[in-house]
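hey so i finally got around to running the thing on that chain from the lab meeting. sorry it took forever, my laptop kept dying and i had to restart like 3 times. anyway pasting the input first so we r on the same page abt which one it is
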Amino acid sequence: MPEDASPSPAAARRNRLAVVSAIGVGQILAWGSSYYLLAVLAGPIAADTGWPLTWIMGALSVGMLVSGLVSPRIGHFIDRRGGRPVLAASAALLSGGLLLLGLAPGLPVFVLAWVVLGLGMGAGLYDPAFSTLGRLYGEQARPAITHLTLFGGFASTVCWPLSALLVDQLGWRGACLTYAALHLAVVLPLYLLGVPREAAKPATAPTAARAASAPGHVRAGQRYAFLMLAAGFTLAAVIMTVLSVHLLTLLQSQGLALGTAVALGTLIGPAQVGARLLEMLFGRKTHPIWSLLVSAVLVAVGLGMLAGAPGVAAAGIVLYGMGSGIRSIARGTVPLALFGQEGYAVLMGRIAMPTLVAQAASPFLGAWLLDGFGASTTLAVLCAAAGLNILMVLVLLPHALRRC
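ok and heres what got predicted. didnt touch it at all, straight out
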């Protein structure tokens, strides 16, 4: 791996742990008040308003779709001006979206609020956070990205109980308004004070001669690797979104009681964090493509065990959770290792778009499979997709190791 890319001057003047911690706390609240929000609030919202649960959950898909569509532009902006203004804007957008959500008088305004939240998600979740660290620390960003995912792994652990408490004390609207205030009072100052301000790159008029060297441009010899990487990340995101949304249904279809299914589901979070700690300790001296391969194998084996006897479901969920946790790191580190620091933020935005758009459609895909073909076939399809994902990573191995 090339060693010519070092931290930017702005990053060198700021303690790295302080920077990662500022972004990390922001990630906990950003994920917890957007992607994970409706896991707790959907039921109370439906009970209070009478709105169809399908439309309530569909609004989250609208937000994810919006976040995917804006991701390429977000990547270009971070490449030009750094991540500080983008992350700060994400805190403001998430606050505004949550404010609108808490005040929504009807379903159309509720969906509109998720459009605003989608803009905030596109500017403030993992991909822009990874891009920010990549621009700050260059090809030395891998430890920072790993540490950041440790914070992100606690988003549901922290925010699901917090959301439940807020709903119990203030109602679902009060919960949304509280999160809106937290983004303005906590997250926005953290980003503005904790993330270094970087000098903007000079703007240049686009010409045909510059097109081949534009930020994020993939050279002819790298295009196949880029397409395979983007396709692999997209397929993995579909697998994990379908499973995260429909896990309880899949487990109950195997004869498990709801309480048992919920207890098994809680194993995913600790497994993710544990795997990230192991990657931080033992994976830092190896090429991140190996971490991506391990992630793909663990997910496939875990799904295979889930599809088998119920007696090994717990072990399967732990292995799946470990693979999911490592993938979050590899999603930020593998593109940096394969294509370098130059244009990294732009590439992350381009990779994020199909991934997030596919995630937006994944809950409906899972529901269609379950309704039309049953739980066993759904698990078999997920296992086949996970096996295909392993092959995609294996195809990337020669390209990745050739660059080292």
